[in-house]
Amino acid sequence: LVVQDHFKMDPSYTGLLGMDTPFCYFIQSGQHRDQCVARKTMRDFVEFENGDQVTKAAMMSYSYLSAIGNMDEAFKAIKSIKSPSVWENMARMCVKTKRLDVAFVCLGNMGNAAAVKAIRDAQLSEVEVDAHVAMLAIQVGMHEEAEQLYKNCHRYDLLNIFYQASNNWTQAIECAEKHDRIHLRTTFYCYGQYLEDLGNKEGAVENFEKSGTFRFEVPRMMMDDVDELQAYILKRKDKELMKWWARYLESLGDMEAALFFYKQSEDYLSMVRIHCFCENMKEAEQLCQDTGDKAACYHLACQFEISGNIPKSIHFFSRAQCYSNAIRLAKEKQLDQELMNLSMLSTQEDMLSCAQYFEEKGGMDDKAIALYHRGGSVSKAIDLAFSSKQFGALQLISDDLDENVDPQVLHKCADFFIENDQFDKAVNLLIASKKFEEALRMCLDHDIQITEEIAEKMTFPKEHSDAKYRLYLLEKIGECAYKQGSFHLATKKFTQAGNKMKAMKSLLKSGDTEKIVFFAGVSRQKEICNGLTN
Q1: How far apart are CA 143 and CA 138, in angstroms?
Q2: Given Cys at both, which of 158, 280, 319, 362 links 297, Cβ 3.0 to 4.6 Å?
Q3: Mean pLDDT across the stretch 277-282?
């Protein structure tokens, strides 16, 4: 047996009475005694009940051949049928059987090329078979089946589009809110356009707002009634809309109204621009002072520069944090004190440029040195300090010197501090230039205490290329610390150098009993234990 069709029996049917193509006859329950027998048309013969014998015979052959899977012979069986209604009914049947190949033949015989194209496009753009069949259902007017097919394949985006095309906006929005949120705003936008076409402005505005397109769509829709549009903008209080309306009013020459809406939108640049255009410089200046808006200050500074008011131009360039412009004007007018202050606030490039300016001008080496230092050109600052004998500036610079500076420059600075009996600073510079042994000798000769920080700066990492020199230097640091009475530090460095006997002697000198016992426990050397016992 081959199943050709199946369906649920009506609850009122009690049994099958018989079959006579194209009908099935059923016995109805007792409550329908006025109609004891009911009939149901077979699926393939829906709307063919009154067809002629040729059509019925062709459909019988088609039903049998398609049920056994012989589609070539099935097509031949119905090839002689010419009635468009017959082909349309067969196309409807293809929705239930999901036979799109048969559906294309049916639509071709109907002459419905648009439907064929729509289904082809669906096949190219979608992967789900149910989505393809749903498009067929739409083309033959089976909307309920199309809706269910989209739900079955979970293509709620296509279902949303289907609801919109069916003018069923309530269900479209509900579908978008629950299952297709990525297209929710688009759905509101399309609904707004639909309501606009119907003349429902209030509904259109509401949906344009929900879609986030009201800033463009509402002005476009209300442009014929500017009073209504202005009332909407005032009610909405959206800054972008107010700024747009202010620009529109400005284009009409209504500066007072434009200023009002620019103020509401907090567009201080445009307010200053209008004040400058109307030559209300005091109002523009006060507005910049009150708000501190950088763009507004920059615009006002440019206006003052054009009018030749350089001090105010420099001031507002500074308020706008456009220090390069302010520096340019200060250089042109040789306002050296303001130039120094501005350069300190600007970028390193501006600092170095101003330092070069002061150096070339002469007599301002202290300013040039400070700017070279702040600008990151430490070597240049030191060279200039030596050449101009600005030793006070050199002392300030020395605090920021490290191993990244040219070693020759560091050594030169160290010699300077040695000559001036500032041995602590000289030690730091010798360490920065990797002159560790000289630094240690200076610590001993001039009683400069070796701290933990200084000792760590002079300690090479374990993976240092010259392991012997590293151990030698560790012992030197330990000996220096021992002589200065820093016994714990000496113990640490002797231990790092691997000389546990010297480490033990240093620890004994410290008198720290707890650490002595701990050291004896971890060392496990007979000589050390005997020494500790004695």
Answers
A1: 6
A2: 319
A3: 92
The size of the chain, in residues, is 534
Assess contact for 493 and 506: CB atoms under 8 A.
no
d(CA 478, CA 459): 11
Alpha carbon of residue 346 to chain centroid: 30
- Classify 361 as helix, strand or coil: helix
* Distance separating the N- and C-terminal Cα atoms of the chain: 110
How far is it, in rounded angstroms, from Cα 114 to Cα 39?
A: 37
Instruction: Kindly tell me the sign of the dihedral angle through the C-alpha atoms of 488, 493, 496, 502.
Output: negative
Domain spans, the chain: 468-533
Q: Which two tokens stand for residue 156?
A: 């709620």
pLDDT in tens, 347-388: 888 888 888 888 788 777 778 878 887 887 777 777 777 777
Cβ neighbors of 41 (< 8 A, separation 6 or more) are 22, 23, 49
Q: What is the 3-state secondary structure (H, E, C) of 50-81?
A: CCCHHHHHHHHHHHHHHHCCCHHHHHHHHCCC
406 pLDDT above the threshold of 80:
no
Query: Which run of H or of E encompasses 473?
Result: helix 467-483
23: β partners = 20, 41
What does the block give as tokens for 92? 């409807």
Per the CB < 8 A criterion, the answer to whether 268 and 286 are in contact is: no
In angstroms, rounded to a whole number, what is the distance separating the alpha carbons of residues 160 and 299?
50
Write the single-letter amino acid at 146: A
The residue type found at 370 is: A
